[in-house]
């Protein structure tokens, strides 16, 4: 069971699966409130327009109502488009939705929502009930349970909660003591060291004094470097290589010299002086000569007699001109068999 509950994206089983009564049977006598429009829709004034239209409908006679049923009128409620646009695209708020795995059960809407509450923050109603002042300087007055916390320790349910006078410094202008408006006695040991935290505010001041401003690189990311700076860097590197050591001795570079009997470039890989990327023959043919023709017009001849030929015709084409042009251009010769 523990493995199933701790698995990822699991949803708990509804608690009413073992109940004898039907689901939501206990809400039978509870009055359901009517639907209430959201606030951003109320700002458009649709409720006032509907109310005025309803009052006008009540004042009409039965004859007028029957006439409207036969020929109804449209566009009675007309709202400015800019108001509708601002209501849904500018002032619309996200409705409250449940999280993944958060199931509904009977009486869930009547529970107190403690998610908006923050431990340590006192509301004005609670301050008035405890006799504490309210207003902008209300944080200067300590709560009545601070003395008990200094004696017994901070609440175990909130180990990281900062409580002034217990594990955090008190506000400016306040002092420790048991007088009216005093913050009790700070919890310290025999050596005067705080028990639960920085109650005197010394650690925060030391941290601010020890902070060192780090150098922030404010150059633009992805900025292209100029070619002049790269050339200057190359020149500086060449100058640094040519400078001798301070002692006057030149750094030996014998291991960097290639032996005389060997060559770093293998034979047959030498770069030629001229590289011919295009065929000169094709270029010469393209540059010289006339523009090539797509077709050749064959002259037509007329014959008086069809003769004894099986597929004879009165029109004959002269192929001699086409054959001469083809031989000059190097076309293959096709010989027809008899």
TrEMBL record:
What cellular component terms from Gene Ontology apply here? Answer: U12-type spliceosomal complex
- What positions does the domain PSP proline-rich occupy? 114-172
Show the ranges annotated as biased composition (Acidic residues): 224-247
Q: Which SMART domains match?
A: PSP
Q: Where is this region: Disordered?
A: 222-273
The protein here is known as Putative splicing factor 3b subunit 2
Q: Which organism does this sequence originate in?
A: Rhipicephalus microplus (Cattle tick)
